[in-house]
Design goal:
- By secondary structure, the chain is of the alpha+beta class.
- The protein contains 3 helices and 2 strands.
- It has helices spanning about 1-15, 20, 30-40; strands at about 50-55, 60.
- The protein has a two-stranded antiparallel ribbon with strand order 1-2.
Length: about 70
């Protein structure tokens, strides 16, 4: 189930221009935070979301602050 959810999420991100998917300016940092918020409620074992920018060779990782 979690795998299907992640597959759908990845397909959405790769299938459209990010500015059409989000109501904010979609930087890698903000998108990672947004995705973490969406996915954490559905995937109990989620510890972080990581996005890889292959064009620039950089990686962005978001995890929730301690609560």
């Amino acid at each position: 189930m979690a795998g299907d959810l992640l597959d759908r999420c990845c397909a959405e991100l790769s299938g459209a221009v990010w500015t059409s998917l989000f109501s904010f300016r979609p930087t890698f940092e903000l998108v990672a935070r947004e995705l973490y918020g969406r996915l954490a409620a559905q995937i109990a074992q989620l510890t972080y979301v990581e996005l890889r920018d292959e064009a620039f060779g950089s990686t962005t990782r978001y995890w929730a602050p301690e609560q």
